[in-house]
Amino acid sequence: AVRTAGEAQTSIDHLKKALADAPGASPNLLTTLVGIETRLKDLQIELSGDSTVASRNEPTPASITDRVQTLVTGGWDATSAPTTTQRHNYDIAAAQFAPVLTRL
Q1: CB within 8 Å of 1: residues ≥ 6 apart
Q2: Are 1 and 104 spatial neighbours (Cβ–Cβ below 8 Å)?
Q3: CA nearest 62: which of 34, 28, 97, 37?
Q4: Distance from the CA of 77 to the CA of which of 13, 26, 38, 101 falls in 20 to 30 A?
Q5: DSSP output for 20-80
Q6: What are the C-alpha distances in Å from 56 to residues 41, 43, 53, 59, 101?
Q7: What DSSP designation does 11 have?
Q8: What DSSP character marks residue 82?
């Protein structure tokens, strides 16, 4: 999903350039495109966290990607069942990811 969001941003960047190069393009198209881009950025924050806030050393909630990476790292070489914390992280990530994927 993170890669898909990145690809969508690339498409938006190309569309913005095309609108800038099209002298007869309706201004409403750019407004619509900026709205889509804003919603995409919100989805990217949900997926990967808010890098702007984190870059200022401010606390940020765990993103979906953070939770999944914790699961993968913690369970990679494990031979035991997942811990309660790992299961809890999985449940949270799964619950958060479903609506993000739908909106994406």
Answers
A1: 47, 97, 100, 101, 104
A2: yes
A3: 97
A4: 101
A5: HH-TT--HHHHHHHHHHHHHHHHHHHHHH--HHHHTTT---PPPHHHHHHHHHHHHSS--S
A6: 19, 21, 5, 9, 28
A7: H
A8: P
Q: Is 67 exposed, middle or buried (0-12, 13-18, 19+ CB in 10 A)?
A: buried
pLDDT in tens, 1-54: 678 888 888 999 999 999 999 988 888 999 999 999 999 999 888 888 888 888
More confident call, 91 vs 51: 91
Non-local (6+) Cβ contacts of 93 within 8 A are: 64, 67, 68, 71
Distance CA 93, CA 104 (A): 16
